[in-house]
């Protein structure tokens, strides 16, 4: 029995709509009740909110397109000024009208001009006889525009005396929208996050035709068992599912297992999912890079920018300070003259070394160094001349606060503060790159 019912729309259309918006039947049913019949006046403004990737934009687009309701859909991030936004609405209204004559582009500088031009644009019989929906996605951008834009959109039906409903889609609550001067209160509708059962149902619909639905559902169950605690974003989970499915199928392709050998399939995919845990929100690395890493069975750190732990965005001189601190911590003092002076004179070769000097300095750990040595190395590795200003010293303090440097407390010494570098060689290589 279908969950969506409406006396105006055919049952087949509602059944098709229900199949397109899984796990959002209650929200679609509520919207259908608010919309009413095509020619009826709907609520002047509707505010739909929910976290990212909760289906707000997709549900509205699917609902309006499936039922073939006249609508305008505008992203407020793309049209970021009031003039661009109002003109884009008018342009889309012209395409909604069945009139063959196309009016020339008319600039729209104020909302008064928009109201006048809006009345002219909806003068056609099709737009006059049924409700027109104006959907503003990422509506939180309206708060950055002129103070009258948001209140005017909320009561556009009253200002134009036309059958129009404005739908605002946002990720933040209405209380952060409400102006201090007050405004017309829209009807608010909340889209909750998808539960793990909802995600399982939605992701399982994308199974490849060459594999059974149960096989792909078992794969999605494994994927959600690993990633659900750290990632609830449907789009990201869809990306992860598409990216790792070929690795899950390898034993079946090679003939080593069948689709029901869940244990063998899990053992094959487990190490690769652990690697993928370091690349959740894979915008840090391209899909081709990730697939190449899986083929080579390399470590995640082999790819540039793969993990946020190997790269921290620091100011220009802070990067050089950190490199200088690493050199000061892991190089003996007696080597500074050889490494950082252009004309260091003749270097006497010695055949003997102390026993502990034969051990790698990286195994012995970082050594403390004074502030003047850090600055001396900094001046030698930076190309241009650096003045010892308060900005440099404040950046050293910031590095200590970030725990990239640690201050060694020696209260009995009067020769100034001493520091240690606490970051790894891979970190310094990423900074130096």
TrEMBL record:
Keyword set includes ATP-binding:
yes
Orc1-like AAA ATPase domain: residues covered: 21-167
Q: Which family does it belong to?
A: Belongs to the ORC5 family.
Report the residue ranges that make up the ORC5 lid domain in this protein: 216-283
UniProt cross-references to InterPro entries, sorted A to Z: AAA_16, ORC5, ORC5_C, ORC5_lid, P-loop_NTPase
Cite the record's note on assembly: Component of ORC, a complex composed of at least 6 subunits: ORC1, ORC2, ORC3, ORC4, ORC5 and ORC6. ORC is regulated in a cell-cycle dependent manner. It is sequentially assembled at the exit from anaphase of mitosis and disassembled as cells enter S phase.
Q: Which organism is it from?
A: Mesembrinibis cayennensis
* The protein's name: Origin recognition complex subunit 5
The task this protein performs is described as: Component of the origin recognition complex (ORC) that binds origins of replication. DNA-binding is ATP-dependent. The specific DNA sequences that define origins of replication have not been identified yet. ORC is required to assemble the pre-replication complex necessary to initiate DNA replication.
Domain of life the protein comes from: Eukaryota
* Main localization category: nucleus
Gene Ontology CC terms, in alphabetical order:
nuclear origin of replication recognition complex
Keyword Transmembrane helix listed? The answer is: no
Kindly list the biological process annotations in GO that this record carries: DNA replication initiation
An annotated Gene Ontology molecular function? ATP binding
Q: Supply the alphabetized keyword list.
A: ATP-binding, DNA replication, Nucleotide-binding, Nucleus
Annotated localization = Nucleus
**Origin recognition complex subunit 5 C-terminal domain residues:** 314-433
